[in-house]
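Hello again, I could really use a second opinion on something today. My current little project is about how a certain protein chain folds up. You're getting the sequence in one-letter code plus the fold written as tokens. Here's the protein in full, and shout if anything looks odd to you:
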Amino acid sequence: MVALYKRKGGSIFPDEWLTTLRNSGFLKPEYSLVADYVAEKKKQLYSGEQNFYLPLKHIAGEAQFDFGVADFFEDGIRYSGHFLNLSFPQSNGGYLQLFKGENLQCIMEGLKNIFAHVSGVPQRIWFDNPSTLVSKILKNGERTLTDAFQRFKNHYGFTAAFCNPYSGHEKGSVENKVGYHRRNFLVPVPRFEDLRQYNQQLLQMCDADMLRPHYQKGTYVKDLFQADLENLLLLPAVELDESQLVTIKTNSYAKFTLNKGKHTYSTAPMYASTTLWARLTAHEVIVLDENYQEVKKHPRLYSDQKESMDWLPYLTQLARRPAALKYTGIYDLFPQGVKDFFSQNSPQEKKETLRILAQISEETGFNYALEALQIALKHGAKDPDSVLATFSRLNTDVFELEPIVLPASTPELPSFKPQVENYDQFLMKGGVEGERTDC
């Protein structure tokens, strides 16, 4: 192909020649010349590689942060969860914490747990740009942080560094660590009773995982991690409360919603159509009244969970208005036998039974109250006092006394076998007065 070169005042070719060359496709415009030049220079600079990354030196005491996704079972219920990863690139050590979401409270609790476990804070932590941490990316590369994360960062004293948008390779250590943690700690799907206790176990499991050779440096990760530990910042003397306090407005059913109406929580009938407070943690939603006194505590809902409903406050209200029972959500929680029992009750009997259920539920929970009612009905006892007596029997501790160990000097005594038939003489009508029997 012929390249077009221009001189001052016009082309070196006659106009009719240029027209013929353009139509035939043999003529390149000036932009193509520049593009060819740049492409050739790129080949010389990068040896043909279009994506070129500089090898970076990892500094002891710096860390990288990221989230991964993994399922788990807590108390028999399966959750699609998220696990927080903190990697130390210098040593290739790392820790993870498991949560049901990846909101700001999960981030702060996970980092707090790791900081406390290693007794220090990384000097610098690299992040992506999640909206929970970054409210705005500025043109000069600076970030406007969310208020809560700014307080968290200032409290612990670390420097927050952020990757360029869509540039996960800038924190490749933790990107690899996400997959490593999933394969080695979260497969098969873990099962446990309490998530917070399991997170403490995960920290210990990560300690044990460092007893392996570094993939490149020829020594153990644990030994390399000592340099990270020696370069950590000191923990602050006062622990930070990472919870978030928000105002809530209840509806006429004394319920409120969070996450743009996605999750619903109950309070108590007396707080219908009222403004209250809610303290949000990674695991709980704690409802507070206008004096910041606790009203109700719920497990925090995530994903497709719809509602957390505590019926105990409503039981007390129903005891005053028992006719409304059948039209409330608590009625659906009763097995059919209990429903039949309430349908046959007089209003007064229904009122008393609901009062007893509320009393028992307040002490030990609704499920125990329902169990006591079912057992009482099974034995034909239907009055409220029998239900309460059944509950007391089910929940009374049986004391097991330690056996008495006699000293070796105790003499052996002959065993005594009572003659039970002799006792009958005392009960027989017409027995001989004054007759003596050996018992």
Summary: The longest strand covers residues 62-74.
